Amino acid sequence: MYAQRFLRPVFSREGEPRVTDFQFLTVPKIYMKAGAARTLGDYLAAESSVSSIFLVTDRGVREAGLLDNACASLSAAGVKVTICDDVVADPPEQLMLDMTEKARSAGCDGYLGLGGGSSLDAAKLLAVLAEGEQDLASMYGIDQIRGRRKPLFLVPTTAGTGSEVTPIAIVTTGETTKSGIVSPVLYADAAILDPELTIRLPGHVTAATGLDAMVHAIEAYTSRHKKNPISDALALKALSLLSAAVPAAYDDGTDLTARSDALLGSMLAGQAFANAPVAGVHALAYPLGGIFHLPHGLSNALVLPYVLEFNALSAKEQYAELYTHLTGDGQGGDESRAGKFAHYMSELCERVGLRQQLRDLGVPQDRLSDLASDAMKQTRLLINNPREISYEDALSIYEQAW
Ligand SMILES: NC(=O)c1ccc[n+]([C@@H]2O[C@H](COP(=O)([O-])OP(=O)(O)OC[C@H]3O[C@@H](n4cnc5c(N)ncnc54)[C@H](O)[C@@H]3O)[C@@H](O)[C@H]2O)c1
Ligand SMILES: [Fe+2]
Questions:
Q1: Alcohol dehydrogenase iron-type/glycerol dehydrogenase GldA domain: from which residue to which, for each copy (predicted)?
Q2: How far is the CA of 368 from the centre of ligand 1 (A)?
């Protein structure tokens, strides 16, 4: 089903012809419009036969009033809405099972995720779990979902994860491990993008989620096996949009142009990494979220400069290309521009308040080895990194970030 794994790496061996062969998947429909939430009911009525929808979100999104227009519009279109606002950041497995019970007893014929990545990931899984054909425990990893899902629509309220266009859902398993479920079944029927929903996103969330999106684009552009011409084009466009829009939206949350560009950029980056998967930065960021509950985007930003420096040995051409793409500066060799790219990203993190050290965020030095051990478990991500990361390498990166 997920034929990409049969394709050969884009990085060909020396002397072999470099042949372009790839597969690209995404959601079938993407609808973007400022104010789209206000006509969501009409959109759903036109695009589907759903008559009662299970709306998956978190309390923060609900209390920010972000459901109001969407719910009014759905009711006006004759769609019955059951709201479940139980989602918490990085949803734990038990919570997913509890929500599954609620979803099944509500008996809805469609699912709507409206919120940040945590809400969208939960909605994606619930649309599958509601069918009752397979246990959650057997879905982890790549391509393990068998069977169907209910109709699924996703409306992001952060400009970060790109979850609205990815076939991925992240669940916290055990006490601390962030485990991924990756399957084409998780591609939604439609992603609906309304930048107005992101206007009241606080500055620090804007910064962290925006950096998450930039890391998606960077890691897709250097992804070891499945990087392809479409993911490259999407990553480049995403980075141009996000590098300007994230600082602008951080400075002025009401700047609708910046909000629109950031939302578009995060969606394009999502399409890129859905096909050319993320790597070392995410592998080292996940344990920070799992063990210390640091927000996903902040976790990425904390390790980003050091992973870029580490990777530069193997990915200097791509980093140099990204640097020239973002700045127009083509002076110097690849190595020098790759170094400048790491510096550029580090300065951008600083500009939006994300240049912090692990020691200031409650991470004790004697837990760095636990972080490195946990990072080694992220084999799904580590295999995509342009340079192999050993336990010692991971520990050294955490020490630099500490
Ligand atoms: N599926 C994927 O492809 C993918 C990719 C990357 C990350 N993730 C996962 O997504 C999760 C992170 O998602 P996230 O960064 O979007 O954060 P989130 O969904 O955890 O939300 C963070 C906080 O922001 C609040 N919030 C969301 N939108 C708001 C708005 N418009 N105004 C005010 N407050 C708002 C929420 O209430 C919450 O308190 C992690 O679990 C991560 O592992 C998934
Ligand atoms: Fe991410």
A1: 29-195
A2: 25
